[in-house]
Amino acid sequence: MKLSDTKINDRGIEIFIGRFLRWGVLSSCAVAIAGGILYLVNHGMEVMPDYTVFHGEDAGYTSLPGIIKGLETGSAKEVIQAGVIILLATPILRIFLSLISFILEKDRLYVFITAIVLCIILGSMFGGLKI
Amino acid sequence: MLILSFTLILLLGAYLAGLTGALTGLGGGVVIIPLLTLVFHIDMRYAIGAALVSSIATSSGSASAYVREGITNIRVGMFLEIATTIGAVTGAMIAVYTPVNLVAIIFGLTLIFSAAMTLRKKNEHAETEGSPLAAKLKLNGSYPTPSGVVHYNLRNVGGGFSIMTLAGILSGLLGIGSGALKVLAMDTAMRIPFRVSTTTSNFMVGVTAAASAVVYLQRGYIDPAIAMPVIIGVLAGAFTGTKLLMRLNPKKLRLIFSIAITLVALQMIYNGLQHKF
């Protein structure tokens, strides 16, 4: 993605963000397919778990360290969950990209607005909203 | 039921959700939640997790195309995302204290509203006189049409912002993109032309959903075995849908789908009132 030789303007940024979103979604889907195949090969013939009662997922699937740990052991569910993480990260990273682009454009007002949005999301990630 | 057959049925359902979502403008969650709760009797909380995942997938997937065409107004999107993300995080927090049956009833009512919204007349008019606040926030914009570039101005920034906060709360509480409310805020309150408001709404859904999804992921609402067929199916369906959209007129389809959604919504409300969730 050659951002360097495009003039920094709204149009160039739009094209860049568009490409970024597409890559994020496609790589998340690829990881989910890989994990899915692994999961079905290992567990496809087992009886479906009982989802009628909510018990919440294990720590292995709900935190980044847990998912990375599971990836090292090659567990299919963690591979899928890594795909989910890529999917969640795509729009959040998109805001980072917008922030950088507004800084390059020297648009102070929108640097401020984008920073607020980013703070709200990071606050919900790290703010202990697990309850 | 075997895991294999469950996965395949869900994959097909998610594909249809993505397909109808792309053709009618109603997000994937609208189909995913009733499918999981009414057909498979899966707990509402797993369904909300799956719906959030499908909302992010469809939003990022379709926004990538629209942003490149230059129709989406990125500044409007970013400014209003302050409202939707605050709403989404609030909604995800409220969800803990809201009984599941009440969530189902609110979901049903939102579905009926969304179905009605897809059938109403669209605002294609580009406003020439905007409000001073819109100019100050640099929200006015332009978009390409076959007959040249159209410039438009915005009104009622405060009104749009408040409706967006509500849209964010509903999206955080229910796991849906609440695109219908987002379009209402931009199209009806702020007088943004229809094509700009739908694509900008689509662009915003991903960020709104991600804001609450990080909360839900940590709470264990997102089950990998359910999320996997949903991501793959919804994306494949949305991709086919956008291709099909160029060849057929979705007007009749939108009517049929709206009626179907209303019936599903009534079923959700009925079950919610009977405490069946």
Automatic annotation (TrEMBL), chain A:
Q: Which UniProt keywords apply?
A: Membrane, Transmembrane, Transmembrane helix
Q: Name one Pfam family in it.
A: DUF1634
InterPro entries referenced in this protein's UniProt entry, alphabetically: DUF1634 (IPR012861)
Please verify whether the record's keywords include Transmembrane: yes
The UniProt transmembrane annotation reads 20-41, 79-97, 109-129
Which superkingdom heads the taxonomic lineage of this protein's source?
Bacteria
Give the protein's recorded name: DUF1634 domain-containing protein
Native source species: Filimonas effusa
Question: What taxonomic classification does the UniProt entry list for its organism?
Answer: Bacteria, Pseudomonadati, Bacteroidota, Chitinophagia, Chitinophagales
From TrEMBL, chain B:
Membrane-crossing residue ranges in chain numbering: 102-119, 161-181, 226-246, 253-270
**Compartments, record wording:** Cell membrane
Q: Which InterPro entries match?
A: TM_pro_TauE-like, TSUP
Per the annotation, which location comes first and is thus the protein's main one? membrane
Q: Which domain of life is it from?
A: Bacteria
The protein's topology relative to the membrane is: Multi-pass membrane protein
Keywords in alphabetical order: Cell membrane, Membrane, Transmembrane, Transmembrane helix, Transport
- Presence of keyword Transmembrane helix: yes
Q: Does the keyword Transport apply?
A: yes
Cellular component per GO, a single term: plasma membrane
Matches recorded under PANTHER family: MEMBRANE TRANSPORTER PROTEIN YDHB-RELATED (PTHR30269:SF23), TRANSMEMBRANE PROTEIN YFCA (PTHR30269)
UniProt record similarity statement: Belongs to the 4-toluene sulfonate uptake permease (TSUP) (TC 2.A.102) family.
The protein, known as: Probable membrane transporter protein
